[in-house]
Input
Amino acid sequence: MTNKNILDGSGPLLPQSALWEPFIFTKEEIDAEIERLAAIPKPANGRRRSYFVHPANLRSVGLAPGIQVSLDVLLPGEETATFRQNSSQVNFVIRGRGRSEVDGQVRETSLHDVWNTPSMRVYLHKNTGDDLYVRLTYSNAALLEMMNIHFQEENPDVASPSEIGHGSEEHDPAKVNPFGTFQLNEGGAWLMPYERLINPPCQESLALFWPWADVKENLDKLEALGKEYIGRRLYLLWNPATGRTNGTTPNFFATMTLRPPKIVDRPHRHSSAAINYYFSGSGRSTVEGKVYEWKAGDLMLSAPGWAVHNHASYDEPVYELTIQDQPLNIVMESLLWQESLKEPPALLGVQQGFATNRVEVAA
Output
């Protein structure tokens, strides 16, 4: 008898899942949800939160398969309990001002500021202003939920990873493999013992802060590149701990983009998914031949993985925050990127990437 859980994959390749459609949560819908959250009784943990879920998502509370986006609201004077989880976050203020404490580091935050919260760091948020304090929180929790490994804890009573010194134990030769890690053959294969497997080199992961005023000052300089520039006028909010994967967290990059009036991008595509929050201006996105219009205050899954797309601004400058799971795809060697549909795709992080004409137009 054939086991029904064994699937025959002989012959033709299995059919691929259909691309998720782009999806927009409008400013009006978001504003209404902010007011609804502000009106409910304060939860015991202080977290007034809603999740933006794609209608095709039946497995997690994600706006993209691996990206969770939440709306967090605090009334004046309110603060949350302390939390920690093994997902990492990008935080973005869309209204009011407040204070965030991450791993004992306190920062005053205001409109359009961005910061990251590394995995398993103890954190809390507080409203220090007279208005509502509203944030968008992006995390890889959706991916961890599908893997069934998302750890979350309220009011943790243990130290953060950065405060724990596992390496302080006295050296015991009996616990160390005497052969160590060594090259097995001339082809480049190696063997590593268990002792190193369960104690990999540590990479410091800091909570970093990108104040909007400082970012905008540098971003606005890119307008001078003119309409002849074929790239996108943006800056990655880079976390050096992510190294060659170009991330804000190990999973995501966060970029701030300026689109001058009447700028149209070239159609392109990439295997990473993109979520845009537009906080100034208006425009349109064309995805797989279908046009979607957006305006300031809208949140949009603008580029489902491997969907052909481009964006255009209307009559005023557009500012937007974009979250993509590019760093994760680079680590997995799955980041296919086609900057121009006239060129073949490249496997970024493994193959040579693409160049723009910035040197020419900036000369």
